[in-house]
Amino acid sequence: MEEFDVIVIGSGGGLHVASVALKKGMKVALMERGPLGGTCLNNGCIPSKMLIHPADVIRNLEEGRKVGIEGHIDRIDFQKIMERMRSVISRSVSGMEESIRSEEGLTWFRDTAEFVGEYTLRSGGRTLTAPKIVIASGARPLIPPIPGLVDAEFMDNVSVLDLERLPESLVIMGGGYIGCEYAHFFSAMGTEVTLVGRNPNLLPNEDPEIREIVERSLSKRMGVYTGHEIFKVEREGGKKVVFARKTADGSIEKIEAEEIMVAVGRRSNADLLKPKMTGVETDKRGWIVVNDRLETTKPGIWALGDATGRFMFRHTANYEAEVVSHNIFEATGEDDMKVADFHAVPHAVFTYPPVAAVGLTESEARESGYKILVGRAKYTDVAKGVAMAEEDGFVKAVVEEDSMKILGISVVGSEAPELVQQVVYLMNTEYQDFMPLIESQVIHPTISEVIAHAFANLEHPHHHAEE
């Protein structure tokens, strides 16, 4: 039995916890069976955005005609785009490996780990224990049990990064953020894309006024089938054939493509760890249960990041790692522990046009019992938006009427993530209101003015707006 002060499972957000422990002179075990860096670095936000940027360049060139710029693309070097992405990831992982190998006090366990008893894990032929354990084991693609899917073969967000040749046609299963981002990428590259989602709308968790703009834009460039349930996959004459049933009327679509990509959701990696062997409970979907201090049901064991299934973003995992680090290494007792604050968790969807949001949507705010005001603004309401010919750009702000506290904002259009980030800062001030924005001079002309316009346009909501 090998004894440690701290065991960290997962090298994404978990690396921060391991680093803090090492700085305090502790003996640390890092358990990571895959490449270092976790999902974000290896097959999530970093590689996907390196692919999406060239797609943005292509679409922006095409949109140039709106402002009098006619251009054409001579060649898209798909192999170079993929190789550039892979080389950047490889260099980053190699750098992390070199750093970890040289770290005194840190032992890296590279085999699959599982709990075998109280505070005890086994990895390969080694058994280890520690009084403090952090589970940052992440998640993996959810693969639906559709007849014929496995036999037909498919890609997911991991294997898609190994592509050497651009497929001529592609069916993407799933209308969430992964599906919409890769639909944008492949369609810009020149692939004939068909996006199939079981929900009535693409990006079902976004505000309806926002997701409608995205769906309208993507539908101009690809086939979009929302409200369709895929029930069978076959091979026919060298093609892969997807059969999808429309929920509304039962009609069936038969869609042929060279390749299939599955992007219907994520599932926890916790089942691989057998956490119940050490008293850590999971919910009915397999996500690790934690309290507001990110403690699991077992004292001395914490969980963060995608393993909990709550806010599956790297920036959130980084924040949670700080909370966990404080509660393990700094807190002097129960009253000194940090409570995780998730009132202003931002996110972005890097499709075309991009989407970003933070906080509550209009319907979520109403359902939570808030008395609200809603403000809207189009990009073309400000001079910069007109100059950019951003006809679909749109901002929607939600505010609590009595306190004027910002409850949420959603944006679709160029620079949406950067615009939303401005509001994230306001939502983390003492009063969480928008008065600092109103009282500030906003550089004219900039697209930032559209945020101020949305708050200036606050009014009582029309209750049919989201129906």
Keywords:
467 residues; alpha/beta; 5-stranded parallel β-sheet; 5-stranded antiparallel β-sheet; 23 strands; 24% strand
Set down the secondary structure blueprint.
Layout: E1 2-3, E2 6-9, H1 14-23, E3 28-31, H2 38-43, H3 45-63, H4 78-101, E4 106-109, E5 113-117, E6 120-123, E7 126-129, E8 132-135, E9 139-141, H5 149-152, E10 169-173, H6 177-189, E11 192-196, H7 208-219, E12 223-225, E13 228-236, E14 239-246, E15 252-257, E16 259-262, E17 266-268, H8 270-273, E18 301-303, H9 314-330, E19 346-349, E20 355-359, H10 362-367, E21 372-378, H11 383-388, E22 394-400, E23 406-412, H12 416-427, H13 435-438, H14 449-456
Parallel strand pairs: 1-7, 2-3, 2-8, 3-4, 8-18, 10-11, 10-16, 11-12
Antiparallel strand pairs: 5-6, 6-7, 9-17, 13-14, 14-15, 19-20, 20-23, 21-22, 22-23
Helix pairs in contact: 1-9, 3-4, 3-6
Brief sketch in words of this structure:
With 467 residues, this protein is an alpha/beta fold. The chain has helices at residues 14-23, 38-43, 45-63, 78-101, 149-152, 177-189, 208-219, 270-273, 314-330, 362-367, 383-388, 416-427, 435-438, 449-456; strands at 2-3, 6-9, 28-31, 106-109, 113-117, 120-123, 126-129, 132-135, 139-141, 169-173, 192-196, 223-225, 228-236, 239-246, 252-257, 259-262, 266-268, 301-303, 346-349, 355-359, 372-378, 394-400, 406-412.
